[in-house]
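debug: dumping io for the single-chain case to check the tokenizer round-trip. Nothing else runs in this session.
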Amino acid sequence: MGLRAMGVTIDCHDPEQLADFWAEAIGFNNRQGNGDPYITISGSDIERAVNHLTFQKVPEGKTAKHRVHLDLFVDDITAEVERFIGIGATVITPAGEPSHLGFIAVVLADPEGGEFCVVGRPEFHTANNASTHS
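debug: decoded output
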């Protein structure tokens, strides 16, 4: 197979703000572009299948739930949800019962309302944690 990289492009109003949020959220440390119309973030010590995110400035706003979203697999859901809230995410749907393949997920939104999931095993989730029940 000739595939050598995989990235995701996210339409947005403010590429600078989302690049800052996502670089902090997932640990990318390289940045290219000025937001007119693109910023791409990449580079991390974490081995991952997606090696970059690009934020593309578009004039139209978000009108519905995204058809594609990022799933971020973590060891400690409670700690990571708190960290994401601390950098500007909001909780859309708190953790429920284990579902697909025994994982639980918290649905969050980035600063422009883009949905993403924090996913992990139930043994790492504190069911009574207020940050996942807002």
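debug: round-trip ok. The longest helix spans residues 15-26.
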